[in-house]
Design a protein that fits this description.
Largest sheet: none
Radius of gyration: 15 Å
Number of strands: 0
Distance between the termini: 31 Å
Structural class: mainly alpha
Helix content: over 70%
Order of helices and strands: HH
């Protein structure tokens, strides 16, 4: 928080970061490697479609 000069800038960053983090966070410790890889691939495919 010290690196942000304005609270509005911090709030904007946190809002965007939270959405991206939630999209890619798949709780690796709860699923097998195969399922994790499938979910990660699906998330990357969706991210590329949104970012394009």
């Amino acid at each position: 928080m010290l690196k942000f000069r304005r609270m509005k800038t911090l709030q904007k960053f946190v809002a965007i970061h939270g959405q991206i983090h939630n999209h890619f966070n798949s709780e690796r410790h709860l699923v097998s490697r195969e399922i994790y890889k499938q979910r990660r691939s699906a998330a990357l495919t969706e991210w590329r479609a949104v970012a394009a």
